[in-house]
Model the fold of this input.
Amino acid sequence: MALPTGAYQAYRTTQIKTASPADLLLLLYDGAIKWCKLAEMHLDSGEGELAHQALLRGQDILDELIISLDFSAGGEIAQGLYQLYDYMRRRLIEANIKKDKELVIEIVGMLQELREVWLEASKAAQQPNPGASGGLDVIK
Done:
């Protein structure tokens, strides 16, 4: 049974407000992937305006990913992600202008790969380090 629109919106708002930074990043990746796949479907159907709107949403999410980068803490990694996000954003703009589904497919693949890497990294960061006891490391 589907939730009424208002209830679903309240659930999503609570989900976002209570999410960790790692979970928020995954939600952004999920959103970008969703909108790009929707654009693919609209391009297949010849629905140019709907594809345009979906691609704009994907571009907006990539802008959010760019804004979220912390260059002071992230250094080279943040710079590399900036270049990657900017590339993907430009490719979505190009896909929108040309109505080129193949460009969208390229970006979906990149986003899915980044999402998987981030998911694994966040899982690894949550795992307790068995070698770190929090006390003195005494070797007998």
User: Anything to note?
Assistant: Residues 20-124 form a domain with the Four Helix Bundle (Hemerythrin (Met), subunit A) fold (CATH 1.20.120.340). Helices lie at 5-17, 21-45, 48-67, 71-98, 101-126. The mean pLDDT is 87. The radius of gyration is 19 Å.
